[in-house]
Amino acid sequence: IFRSLGRRPSIRTEQHDSRWLNEPKFVGSFWVPESENPDDDKIFFFFRETAVEAQGLGKSTYSRIGQLCRNDMGGQRSLVNKWTTFLKTRLICSVPGADGSDTYFDELRDAFLLQTRDRKNPLV
């Protein structure tokens, strides 16, 4: 994930480090306001990738959601020109309740953001 803003230094995920991204296939991205302050805005990425946590179990593909703060400028001493707010997790749909089960949709092909009256709470 790469961003260049004119004269500012570019910022990116770490290259060739499978802990950041491992053979990602991007499906979509969305800019979502978090509050009235634009500095709080987030960017969400939907993608599939080869799961490093499943190594040893064969090659597994997981669907993921990633998040960045829109105003991330990278680190001052460490993570210089790298995202400091990058987070990712596996997409899991769960059935509510004590005996609920997890459902995995690991062949994510599309994502859609449905705007609601409250821009800060869209439906994905």
Task: Report on this structure.
The chain is mostly beta strands. The chain has one domain (2-104). 0% of the residues lie in helices and 32% in strands. It contains no helices and 8 strands. The protein has strands spanning 2-3, 11-12, 25-32, 42-50, 61-69, 87-90, 92-94, 102-104. The protein has a 4-stranded antiparallel sheet, with no helix packed on it. The chain has a two-stranded antiparallel ribbon with strand order 1-2. It has a two-stranded antiparallel ribbon with strand order 7-8. Strand 7 and strand 8 (102-104) form a beta hairpin. The radius of gyration is 16 Å and the shape is globular. Residues 1-124 form the Sema domain. Keywords: Glycoprotein. This is Sema domain-containing protein. InterPro entries: Semap_dom (IPR001627), Semap_dom_sf (IPR036352), Semaphorin (IPR027231), WD40/YVTN_repeat-like_dom_sf (IPR015943).
